[in-house]
Amino acid sequence: MTDLRLEREFPVTPERLFAWISDTEKLLQWWGPEGMTVPEHTLNFHQEGPWSTVMTNADGDRYHVSGVVTHVRPPQSIGFTWGWHDETGARGHESHVTLTVEAVDAGARLVIDHRNLDSSEQAAGHQKGWESTLRKLASKIQ
User: Fold this and answer.
1) pLDDT tens column, 41-94
2) How far is CA 137 from the centre of its chain?
3) Which of 12, 36, 44, 64 could covalently link to 85 via disulfide, CB atoms 3.0 to 4.6 Å apart?
4) Domains with residue ranges and CATH for the chain
5) Cα–Cα dist 4/64, whole Å
6) If 0-12 CB within 10 Å is exposed, 13-18 middle and 19+ buried, where does residue 17 land?
7) What share of the chain has pLDDT > 90, as a percent?
8) What SS3 class is residue 84?
9) Residue 6 phi/psi, 5° resolution?
10) Contact present, 140 and 20 (Cβ < 8 Å)
11) Under DSSP, is residue 117 helix (H, G, I), strand (E, B) or coil?
12) What's the start-to-end Cα distance of the chain, in Å?
């Protein structure tokens, strides 16, 4: 198993950053890599329970991912499982993501801790996706 950790600082309060990672309306503005939209979702990071999204790129390709919110601790962290679905709808390997908000001198830091990825190749793909997603968040939150 492989783990991935990314950090990004934002010039906002920890409470404001937490709102951007937990409020569905705000979350949908940055969820998914650049160029992707989210036409279908059951995102609710205010409570434990199931979630899913379908992300679509400009070519119309659909990417379905789902999981279960495992914890919500405002304004510090949200944890959830993550599993991609294949073209038949079967859910693949399950990993776990924790989004943690920390106060820093310049505002707040978001830590993405994505654990139990099944290969270094999968971790590299997720790193690319999360970095793109963080750029979207930065463009919305500032």
Assistant:
1) 999 999 999 999 999 999 999 999 999 999 999 999 999 999 999 999 999 999
2) 10
3) 64
4) 2-141 (3.30.530.20)
5) 21
6) buried
7) 99
8) strand
9) -125, 145
10) yes
11) strand
12) 35
**Token reading at 129:** 């996706």
Pairing assessment for the beta strands 37-41 and 49-56 based on DSSP bridges: antiparallel
d(CA 111, CA 101) in angstroms, rounded, equals 6
Structure tokens at 14: 């920890």
Of 42, 62, 45, the residue nearest 53 (C-alpha): 42
**Mean pLDDT estimate for the chain:** 96
Answer yes or no: pTM beyond 0.85: yes
Confirm if 124 and 27 have CB atoms less than 8 A apart.
Answer: no
pLDDT of 46:
93
pLDDT at 142 over 80: no
